[in-house]
Amino acid sequence: MERITVGFLGCGNIGCGVYKLLETYGEEIFRNEGVAFDVKKILVRSLGKKRSWNIPAHLLTDHPDEVLDDPEIAVVMEFMGGEEPASSYMIRALEGGKTVVTANKMALASNWNAIVSAAREHGAGLYYEASVCGAIPVIRAINDSLQANRITSVMGIINGTTNYILSRMSQEGAAYEDVLADAQKLGLAEPDPTADVEGYDAAYKLSILSTLAFHRHVPVECIYREGITGITPLDVQCGKEFGLTLKLLGVAKEEDGKIQARVHPTFVRSSHPLAGVSDAFNAVYVNGHACGEMMFYGRGAGDMPTASALVSDLIKAAHTKRHPLPAVNDVPCEIAEDWSCVHFVRMKAKDEPGVLALVSGQFAQYGVSISSMVQKGDRDADGYVQVIFLTHEASERAVRSALAALPAEKVCIGSIIRVEGE
User: Fold this and answer.
1) Residue 68 in contact with residue 118, Cβ under 8 Å?
2) What is the CATH number of the domain that holds 236?
3) Sign of the Cα pseudo-torsion (402, 406, 410, 414, in order)
4) Which residues are marked as active site?
5) Into how many domains does the chain fold?
6) Which domain holds residue 281?
7) Residues 110-149, buried b or exposed e (16+ Cβ, 10 A)?
8) Which one of 18, 134, 368, 395 has the lowest number of neighbouring Cβ atoms within 10 Å?
9) Residue 315 lies in a domain
10) Does some domain include residue 317?
11) What is the value of pTM for the model shown?
């Protein structure tokens, strides 16, 4: 029988979920996997805080040294969240030769080189399946199952909060602010939802996914990011009339040696597999040159789904004699500053002769071809009408330049939303 001594950094809902799994499912893990885990110390901010699972008081400490410097602790599991002090503690544990298991996408994405280097230099294990999409084993698949593939694109719904909001807006025609308030009441959105609705959470996850998929480090600060706060029910409804479903997607592609990495509201065809992913579920759509297209789907957040992925990593680490490191080479990553796709453009245009010809002529001047155009409703009190365009595939830079050149007294731009999965 093999016994592994474990220390926790943090013990919020996820940490309690891991402890619960180890306590209630530990005997079955031993029968199935031949390894047992003993939690020796748990670093917490407050020793007296009431927790969602009964944690024995003698395990708790508010001194990080009792976890990081204990020679008996072989594996450190990090549940603190945030960049610091989590990053520094993980690096310190790795430098001490301890395996680290984490779900912390912010710390990992923001300090990728430092954390991975510490693991490499000290021969320590680094496991982070739960950092992207909770219980969905997409990192395991990219690292362990798809090595014979040159992955050309990764596209995913990797934030459950925004998917819940956009799903409700689509299903009910509800306003963003109303659905956000409901999500906060249900605990699906934080009191300060910025990390989710402005795309920061998805950008951290996309940095990790794209780095692994393309074997080059894609820094999180190089990812184009745009949130959903400007999305209106009209955008969602007009998209549906074009056969499109709106999602906040992380999109990463490798083309001509450059990597596109972007997070933004995105329309996909309603027949696309990602269009059917509703509520707080996540999904990642991967395209490899040998395997073709595949999608990983499931619960991307929540205490127990995340705890499931963390314990899975813990078991894998226990069985591994030589810990693998991310297959990321030292070739510099060149980020594409422009990309091409179909664009959905909603604008208000003066209802007078020649305005639509002006718009289409301006598009043509920048090499943007219009695929479809519809007018929504009657003219308003100021003499404007809502007009929606779908372009053919066109450069982002060209579309932006064409719209910027339109006279403000004739045209007011409402939304520019990319369309993927054509």
Assistant:
1) no
2) 3.30.360.10
3) positive
4) 205
5) 3
6) 138-300
7) bbbeebbebbeeeebbbbbbbbbbbbbbbbbbbbeebeeb
8) 395
9) no
10) no
11) 0.95
